[in-house]
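FIELD: query
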Amino acid sequence: LALVPVVLVHLPLVAEALDDLSLGGERLHRTLAELGTLNRWLGNTRAVTRAASRGAAGHGPVSVVELACGGGDLLGATGRALPACTAVHGIDGNPHTVAWAALHVPEATFSVEDVTAPDYSVPECDVLIISHFLYHLSDADVPAFLARQQARVRCAIVVSELIRSPWAQRGFAALAWALGVSELTRQDGLLAIQRAWTISELRQTLEPLKTPWTLSRTDPFRLIVAI
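FIELD: result
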């Protein structure tokens, strides 16, 4: 663990292997399965489903969309956690990822869309999930991006992001070693932590939003934004 690099600089525009939208085959499939396991082990599934449940409370039947959904495990878990959920839909830019997700989360629908395109907006929905995606944008672009999505969402947007921390890096490295995950998963996970915000940085990034939002720390290394 002493060999894990300690990076304290926010690196939003550095690419991960999964940012390659042509990536497919066994390397991709194994990584998507491992990320689903890590979502459960590291609390992302629990944090997002709880926040989505709060956001949907009292609104009757709801539809859920996840932006940059990856393997769809988080989307499926959220749909099952909302008793009045009528539809779940995942969006990702990699067609190979969408095909894998459709096989493993058959209760959801999926589409391939370029979510990084200028002026991109999600389909209309009640609850929008954005997990481990905002750090792909520059800090200056985040408020406008969220405001654009909010115009399409009736109840709540739930954003889940990691906290950049040397302890998060070392903890993830230890867990990745213990679980025997692939090199791609380990390297992308460490890079995701390096690309993340600190609490104060994310708060400052969100300040220009013109609508109410909350920022909460759900475990030592995760932040949930509810809009």
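FIELD: remark
The mean pLDDT is 93.
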